[in-house]
Write a structure and sequence with these properties.
single chain; 290 residues; alpha+beta; two-stranded antiparallel sheet; 43% helix
Length: 290
């Protein structure tokens, strides 16, 4: 069984992915997500920094695969990776969600002759596409939920269903006994890059920004991340300097981590110069407007 997982932060770059080892990626591409916005919100398990999250304005979450030649349309863009179950379990563990709980869901799905993503979509639909009701049903099936990130289904046009990890907030994790990190730290809304930096002006946060923004090397539009950076000139200068240093090896690291061939990569993400221009990262590095 393969699972398509959507990364909206550090999972978008080879630098970010490589911290979890290598993967058998069957397919990869840029996806555009409608009815949501992205920012920084959840205090990380891995350092003194805020990690990314999405807030949905329309449920259920939906998106579509974006060809590398297609211009951005102002929606949140992320990276979709189709991987075997064992690799997906490793990604889930990285996000603070128990692999054993997902294995239980996979077993239930297989018993019904369904894919894990199809099963969770059905669970979401049965809950009326209500986040809290869905999380409670998920907890009821697995006796587990996470204060960090929880997998939620996304319908992709012409590509079936995918999963994305969202950080629960004050609305709850699905269990009254498990309080979300966002609630414990009092983070109600998403922060821009500048606002997150003002809260955590440290090396951990800077390194995390880098792992997210390098997703722009693959054509993922990151204008939402970059928009507030230009309002903080010292941060913009430091980020540009570090991105320049890491950019040369990002594609090579991405290929080594995902196992994609150069031909597969070009088909999904296009040529490096085109990808940089599309993502907004090229203009940022050249000191231009986004």
């Amino acid at each position: 069984m393969d699972v398509t997982v959507i990364g909206h932060g550090s999972l978008m770059s080879g630098l970010g992915l490589s911290s979890s080892g290598t993967f058998q990626v069957r397919q990869a591409g840029v996806v555009s997500l409608s009815g949501c916005r992205r920012g920084f919100a959840k205090l990380s398990r891995y350092g003194d920094r805020f990690a990314t999250d999405l807030e949905a304005t329309t449920l259920p979450l939906a998106g579509r695969t974006v060809p590398p030649t297609s211009p951005p349309h102002g929606e949140v863009e992320a990276l979709a990776l189709t991987v075997p179950l064992d690799d997906f379990y490793r990604l889930a563990k990285r996000e603070g969600y128990a692999p054993a709980a997902l294995q239980r869901i996979a077993e239930l799905a297989q018993a019904q002759g369904a894919n894990l993503t199809d099963f969770l979509w059905q669970l979401h639909a049965e809950a009326g596409h209500d986040l809290v009701a869905y999380r409670r049903r998920l907890f009821g099936l697995t006796d587990f939920t996470s204060p960090h990130y929880i997998p939620h289904p996304v319908r992709l046009e012409d590509a079936g269903f995918a999963l994305i990890f969202l950080a629960p907030g004050f609305e709850g994790t699905g269990s009254d006994e498990v309080i979300s990190v966002r609630q414990r730290t009092g983070v109600r809304g998403l922060m821009s890059t500048r606002e997150a930096w003002q809260q955590k002006p440290n090396e951990d946060q800077l390194a995390y920004f880098l792992s997210c923004f390098l997703g722009g090397a693959h054509g993922i539009n990151i204008a939402d991340f970059l928009a507030s950076v230009v309002e903080e000139p010292p941060l913009a200068t430091e980020l540009a300097s570090r991105l320049d240093q890491f950019l040369a090896k990002e594609r090579e690291r991405f290929l080594a981590t995902t196992g994609l061939s150069p031909e597969q990569y070009r088909h999904s993400f296009g040529e490096p110069e085109t990808a940089l221009a599309r993502s907004g990262l090229g203009d940022f590095l050249n000191g231009g407007s986004l």
